[in-house]
Amino acid sequence: MSLKQQSVLHLMIQQKGLQFLKDSIRTELVRRGPFQPGGDFSFPKDKSRRACHPGLFQRRLSNGEIIKRSWLSYSVKNDATFCFCCKLFSKKTNKIIVGGVNDWSNINAVLRQHEGSPEHTKSMIKWKELDLRLSHGKTLDHIQMTALEAERKRWRDVLTRLLSITQSLAERNLAFRGSSDKLYQPDNGNFLREVELLAKYDPVMENHVSRIKDGETHAHYLSKDIQNELIQLVSDQILATIVAEVRHSKYFSLILDCTPDISHQEQMSIILRSVSLKGQPEIKEHFLGFVNVEATTGLNLTTVILDKLADLKIPFDNCRGQAYDNGANMKGKHQGVQARLLRMNPRAVFVPCGAHTLNLIIADAAKSSKDAVGFFGYVQKLFTFFSAGTQRWSILKKHVNITVKSWSDTRWESRLQSVHAVRHQASKIREALLEARQTVNDPVAKVEAQSLAEEVGSYRFLICCVVWCEILSRTNTVNKLLQSASMQLDIAVQLISTAKASLTLYRDTGFSDAQTTAQSICEEMNVEPVLKEKRLRTTKKHFS
Questions:
Q1: Which end of the chain has fewer CB within 10 Å, C or N?
Q2: Beta strand extents in 444-517 (DSSP E only)
Q3: What is the C-alpha separation between 221 and 239, in angstroms, rounded?
Q4: What is the pLDDT of residue 409?
Q5: Residue 286 has what DSSP assignment?
Q6: In angstroms, rounded to a whole number, what is the distance separating the alpha carbons of residues 398 and 408?
Q7: Beta bridge partners of 258
Q8: Rounded to whole angstroms, how far apart are CA atoms 403 and 418?
Q9: Number of structural domains, the chain?
C-alpha cells in the first residue's frame, strides 16, 4: 500500500472520529494493518531539528530482547505516531489516539507509558482476535463478511479494468472525455466508450454497467473527477518508479529546455540521464515532466530545478553533467544556469547540446545571407499558396508525388523536408503553378501563382534549392545521431568534426556542382540558366 493511501486512511479516521467509524471500514483497516515506513524513508524534521526514527517501532526489554511495536502506526500526512489498536477499539481520547504524538524529544516516555496501560492491552486483544478471525474466516458475522469480501473483490476488479483503460488511452495520447458524461451517449468520449465496449464481453464490467443503468448504485467511478484521479495515480506511480531507478543508479546528468505552450505559459522540461544497473548496463533518459516557470532568468531556472530535485528527494550532489541549449540564460559564464549549478557542484560538468550547436551554425549562416532568407520565404509561400484552397491542393497532387511541406523555426528537419520536396520536383511544381494561374478565379491568386512560377523557374532559386538540400541532408544525419540516448562522447566529437570537415569541403567545391545541377533542371524546364542582377534602387538625397 502506498504512503498516500495509508495517510488518507489515518486522516479519515482522525476526521470522522471513532463514533462514526463503520464496521466495514474498521474491518478493512484491520485487514491492511498499521503503516510503518521502511528503512529508506526520510522522516521530516521539526523546528528543533528532531524527527521520528525507525528505532521507535521497536522496544528493548529488560532482558535485552528486542520486540516489534506492531501497534504503532505513523501518519505521513500529520507527521505523527498513533496507536493503531486503540484508534479502532478504544473509547478514550488520549493524544496518541486522537491527534497523534509528534513530541519527538519525549516520545519514548509517552510510548512506554501508553503500552503499559490497561486500555491499550484490551484494545490489543480485540485487534488480534479480529485479525485472527479474519485470517481464518471465522468471524461472528461470517455471512456478512463473505458478502463484504465479495463486494470488495468486485470493486477491486472494476478499478483494475478502469486503470487498464486509463493506461491504454494515455499510452496512445487519446482524449478521455467528450461533451457528455453519461454512458451510451454518442459524444461521451473515449473513456466511457471503452467501458461500453468492455461491458459487451467482460462479465465484471457488464454487471457494473447494468447496476448503473438499473440505479442500484450511485458510486460508479466513471465521472471526470475519478478519471483525473486515475490519471494522477498512474502518473505518480510512473514517476515513483523513475525516481527509484535514478536513485539506484545514483549518478545522473541533467537536461533542461524551455518552451511556451499553447496557452503562452513558459514550461521547462526536465530530463535525467542515467545508467541503469539492472541486468545489462543501459543508458536511459527519463522525462520527469513539465514545470511552469514565471521567469527564464538563470537564477529563477536554477531555483526551480533545485526545488524539483528536492521534492523528488534526488540529491543534486550526485549530478555529474549538465546539457542545455546555447541561450545566454542557460550557458552564461557567470549568471547562467550551468555556472550557478557548477558553483554548487563542481563535478556537474556542462556539455552544450551538440545538436543545438550544429543547428545554430546553420541558422547563423542562413540569417546572414539575404538569398537564404528570401529562398526559405518562397518555400513557405509555396505551401501557403497551395494549402489555401482544396482546388489548388488537388492541382498540386495531380502533378507531384510528394506535396510541399511547411517548416518550423525550431525544427530544422522540417526545413529539409520542405526543401527536399521542391528540389526534386521543381519542374512539376512550376507546372502546377501555371495550371493554377489558369484555373483559379481570384485575381490576387492568379498574380501570386505567376510570381511563384517565375521564382521557381529562376536559376538563382534552383541553385539555392540544390545547395540547401545538400547542406541540410548532411547535417540532419549528424543531428539525429547526436540525439540518440546511447550516444558516446568520443563518437559525438568525431561526428561533429566530420560534419564540419564535410561542410568546409562543400564550401570550396559545392557551389560549382550546384550550378551544374541547377543548369540541368533549367534545361528540363526550358528556362535560360542566367543569374539576373537586381536593379539597385537609389533614393535622391536633398541638402539638410
A1: C
A2: none
A3: 24
A4: 64
A5: E
A6: 26
A7: 268
A8: 9
A9: 4
Grid cell 495550371 is found at 435
For 50-86, the three-class secondary structure string (H helix, E strand, C coil) is CCCCHHHHEEECCCCCEEECCCEEEECCCCEEEEHHH
Q: What is the rounded CA–CA span in Å between residue 352 and residue 355? A: 9
Residue pair 419/474 in contact by the 8 Å Cβ criterion: no
**Percent with pLDDT over 70 in the chain:** 88
**How sure is the predictor about 8, in pLDDT bands with cuts at 50, 70 and 90?**
very low
Q: Tell me: the pLDDT tens digits for 29-57?
A: 888 889 888 877 888 888 888 999 888 89
Rounded to whole angstroms, how far apart are CA atoms 183 and 189?
A: 10
Is residue 160 domain-shared with residue 281, that is, in the same domain? Answer: no
pTM for the whole thing? 0.56
User: For residues 366 and 191, what is the distance between their CA atoms, to the nearest angstrom?
Assistant: 47
pLDDT tens digits along 168-188: 999 999 999 988 888 899 889
Backbone angles phi, psi at 283, to 5 degrees: -80, 130
Q: Does 450 map to a domain?
A: yes
Instruction: Determine the structural domain holding residue 361 and report its residue range.
Output: 357-525
What is the longest distance spanned by two Cα atoms in the chain?
A: 111
If asked whether residues 281 and 413 sit together in one domain, one would say no
